[in-house]
Amino acid sequence: MPSLLFEMGAPGRGSRFVADAGGAKKYLPADLLRSELPIPDLAEIEVARHFMDLSGRNFSVDRNFYPLGSCTMKYNPKLNEAAAGFPGFTDLHPFAPDDGAQGALQLLWDMERTLSALFGMAEFSLMPAAGAHGEITAMLMAKKHFAAIGQGSRNVCLVPDTAHGTNPASAAMVGYRVVSIPSTSRGRTDVGALRSRLDGSTAVCMMTNPNTLGLFEDDIIEITQAVHDAGGLMYYDGANANAIVGLTRPGDMGFDLLHLNLHKTFSVPHGGGGPGSGPVGASAALAKYLPKPIVVRAADKSFALDWRRPDSIGPVREFWSHFLAIVRAYAYVIVHGEEGLRRNSLLAVLNANYVRAKIKDMLTVPYDDFCRHEFVCSAETLKKETGVRALDLAKGLLDAGVHAPTMYWPHVVPECLMIEPTETETKETLDAFAETLRALVKQSHDDPASMAELPLHTPVRRVDEAQVGRQANKGIGLRWEPPPNERAR
Ligand SMILES: *Cc1c(COP(=O)(O)O)cnc(C)c1O
Hints:
alpha/beta; 15 helices
């Protein structure tokens, strides 16, 4: 069966649905008209079936377990979608005056206040469009801060070796030199090494806590104090705050700036599911640099966009940014309440520890410590014994209808799989996952060669990664080309 629209259809089929497609020509400038475009001529039912077929091949959290560590693919409650679909929100004009948009402004204000309270920050900007955008927003704020206090020569950003790749990238994009800080054998940031890198050039230290190994940085107070003593700022990567919401606050740990991913922790869809939202929070001393405008509440309890923020780095996104993503996150917050959010954090941690305990006799768990919302395991021993790699296990999971965990990252763990079950999964799902993994490990010992064949049942079988790597600089060639005998057509 053909799988691309270009391979389907026949001349004249679609013409029944568009009465006089040719008639449109008279409205278009002649120099924009093409004599021939390879657009397939399709019957409506072909189109309907094609897209239904594609939607069935899609992998989504509504169909399957999605334990993708450091990416929190948690369930997206359908109530969020209902809220984001309210006509009062969807029909709002971007230029609506403040007094014609009081409800929407109130929602933004309330969300901003809620996030400030939950994370221990003085103020938030809800503007950044995603996590990495939040990071660079905060780095620009840090730069502006140091310039304002006459310390613009500080140009070093310290980043632990387990950090998400966007951290060093964001720091480098504002011109900071990135210095990597090693981890200890306990999977925590090496405080001694960090201290030895601190001096008058230190601008920012970017940290994730719990870190990307899923472990809580228990020396965090010592770290934030040391960086502050050296005159630097502490930045918190809060993309995956699923273990801490309602339990602890980055502000209390001593962080000055942070970003969140509403499209991870706050249940907004992502990964092809829609635009994200990466709010940035700041301490009282740095809040004046936040992007503008920010929603304020006047003495008469009316809401307005405040543009009078002279020290702001300026807008980082047009209009209200991804407003409907914020509406979804707001729905999640008010449905759960503070108690519900805390419970979700506890369940996320419980589920991660449950899976860790179930699989630690089959795969090595290098830092076998109480984990938070995720943990990292390693197939290195399995590879030594059988030749089977973490990649092969991940491919085998796809056959069982489970999304592959994050692989080969953080780099400090060889052959690693990073597993994050999230709070909404049931015990049955987690048990089934552990059993699937157990069966794959057994197959690796019994018949290692067969593992290289997996997956067997996915729409696309194993891709030739070596060839993709070799061709990458020539262009991978994902564009459809007509078969050679039809090229002249
Ligand atoms: C996902 C993630 C980011 C980046 O977020 P995007 O929205 O993808 O830009 C940053 N840090 C961590 C730890 C993440 O997991």
